Amino acid sequence: MTAIPEYSSSARAGLVGLYRRVIKLPERIPFSLIQFAARIAISHVFWQSAQTKLASWPVTLQLFANEYNLPFIDPSIAAPLATTAEITGSVLLFLGLFSRLAALMLLGVVSVIQIFVFPENWAEHLLWASLLLLVLTRGAGVFSLDYVAERTFSASGK
């Protein structure tokens, strides 16, 4: 008969306690750092998209006219509107200024892209929407001009 080693209940409790402490380590990451990372990541996506459109405007107009086929809006209006929304939204998110409004505006852009342009890319659009929803629902965080403005205006209002 082979002996099965028995672990004492204190050793088991020690391992469980260690496991619980290790699992909870990510909770120590400041939420504002997560908000900052989300803002920078999604602003980069839309900034790059806008830069691509601006790099070859005639090609952009052709894409909006022939490939994207947006209903209800002329391609000569849709192209500058989309490019302006991407530039404005990405800059505002990067700075953390009017972040919730910028996130809402870019959620509209993502919705149009998902519904009318590239519905097969739903996973990528869901990722973008998730980051934008984080900013929309929780704000820009401490590392933002929104936070500075809030602190400034709330202090002056006392």
From TrEMBL:
It is a multi-pass membrane protein. It comes from the Bacteria. The keyword Nucleus does not apply. It is found in: Cell membrane. Its main location: membrane. The chain crosses the membrane at residues 102-119, 125-149. The keyword Nucleotide-binding does not apply. Keywords: Cell membrane, Membrane, Transmembrane, Transmembrane helix. One of its GO terms (cellular component) is plasma membrane. Belongs to the DoxX family. This is Putative oxidoreductase. It comes from Mesorhizobium qingshengii.
